[in-house]
Design brief:
Layout (H helix, E strand, L loop, with lengths): L9 E5 L5 H10 L5 E5 L11 H17 L4 E4 L2 H14 L4 E2 L2 H11 L4 E6 L1 H6 L1 H9 L4 E6 L3 H6 L6 H15 L5 E5 L7 H8 L4 E3 L1 H15 L15 E5 L3 H11 L7 E3 L6
Parallel strand pairs: 1-2, 1-3, 2-9, 3-4, 5-6, 5-7, 7-8, 9-10
Helix pairs in contact: 1-10, 2-3, 4-6, 4-10, 8-9
The structure holds D-glutamic acid.
C-alpha cells in the first residue's frame, strides 16, 4: 500500500445519480471528509450490462478518480460492486470498498427467522453476490432475490410517491411476501429513495436494510484503522465536494441538489473514454 495523504478526498462512483444516496450517508456520518463523486451518466444503466463491460467501466473510472489523488474509493453501485469489486481491489494500491458486504452483514444481523429478501437490478440479483456474502456469514440463511428493473427509471423520473410506483412495487414485493421474509436488503443505490413506499407496502415487521448507511460506517472504520481519516484542523483546499459526470451535467446537478443536504453548485462533464 503506498503512502497516502490522509487529507486527500475519497472517490465515490456510480452509474449515475443512485450513488448519491451513498455519498449522502458519507456526508452525514463523516462530515469532515472530502468527496470526489463520479456518475457515469453517459453509459447507464449498469444493471443490464455484462460483467466484462462493468469491469472495463470501473477500471476507467478508478483511473479518472486517481487523477484527483483520492485516498480511498467507494464503489457506490451495487451492480459494479457485484461484478468488479474483487478485480479492481486486487489491482489497486489504495483501499477500494463496495456496498455489498456491508449490506449483507447488516441483513444477517437483523434477521430473526433467517429469511432475507434482496431487491436490486437484474445484474446484482442474477450475480448471486448477496446470497454468497450472507451464506458465508451464516450458511443456513435463506435468501430470496427479486430484480426490480423498473424502480431505477421511476426514481430518475422523481416518482418517489406515485400510484404508478405503488402498483409496480406491489407486484415486485408480492413475490417476496409469499416467502415470509423478515428482512429486505435495498440492493440498488436508487431504492433508499423509495423507502417510504416499500415500508408502507411491507409493513413494520420487515426490517429494511440500506447498504448505503452501512457502507458509510465501513468507510469510517477503514479510514480510522488505516490512519487515513482527515485531520479537520487542516484547512480545506477548494470545494469539499466535487461532482463529475460523463453526460448531462445540469440534470445531475438538479437531482443532486434535490437529495443532498446542501446545494450542488457545479457538476463537470468529462470524457470517461479517455481514461
Ligand atoms: N446504481 C445501480 C445499482 O446500484 C443501479 C442503476 C443502474 O442500473 O445503472 O445497481
Amino acid at each position: 500500500m503506498k503512502q497516502t495523504d490522509r487529507n486527500a478526498p475519497v472517490g465515490v462512483f456510480d452509474s449515475g445519480v443512485g450513488g448519491l444516496t451513498v455519498a449522502r450517508e458519507i456526508m452525514r456520518q463523516i462530515p469532515e471528509e472530502r468527496i470526489v463523486y463520479f456518475g457515469d451518466t453517459a453509459r447507464l444503466p449498469y444493471g443490464s450490462k455484462s460483467k466484462d463491460t462493468i469491469v472495463r467501466y470501473s477500471r476507467q473510472i478508478i483511473r479518472f478518480l486517481k487523477t484527483k489523488d483520492v485516498k480511498a474509493i467507494v464503489i457506490a453501485c451495487n451492480t459494479a460492486s457485484a461484478y468488479a469489486l474483487e478485480t479492481v481491489q486486487a489491482e489497486s494500491d489504495i483501499p477500494v470498498i463496495g456496498v455489498i458486504n456491508a449490506g449483507a452483514r447488516a441483513a444477517v444481523q437483523a434477521t430473526h427467522n433467517g429469511r432475507i429478501g434482496v431487491i436490486g437490478t437484474e445484474g446484482t440479483v442474477g450475480s448471486g453476490v448477496y446470497t454468497h456474502a450472507m451464506k458465508q456469514l451464516q450458511p443456513e440463511i435463506e435468501v430470496f432475490g427479486q430484480p426490480c428493473p423498473l424502480f431505477v427509471p421511476l426514481v430518475e423520473e422523481g416518482l418517489f410517491h406515485d400510484f404508478v410506483t405503488d402498483e409496480i412495487a406491489s407486484r415486485y414485493l408480492n413475490v417476496l411476501k409469499g416467502k415470509y421474509i423478515d428482512t429486505l436488503v435495498l440492493g440498488c443505490t436508487h431504492y433508499p429513495l423509495l423507502r417510504s413506499t416499500l415500508r408502507r407496502l411491507l409493513g413494520e415487521d420487515v426490517t429494511l436494510v440500506n447498504p448505503a448507511y452501512e457502507t458509510a460506517i465501513e468507510l469510517k472504520e477503514l479510514l480510522m484503522t488505516q490512519g487515513l481519516n482527515r485531520d479537520s484542523a487542516v484547512p480545506m483546499e477548494g470545494e469539499q465536494y466535487q461532482f463529475y459526470v460523463s453526460d448531462l451535467a445540469e440534470k445531475f446537478t438538479d437531482f443532486a441538489t434535490s437529495i443532498l443536504p446542501n446545494e450542488v453548485r457545479e457538476t463537470k462533464k468529462i470524457d470517461i473514454e479517455n481514461y
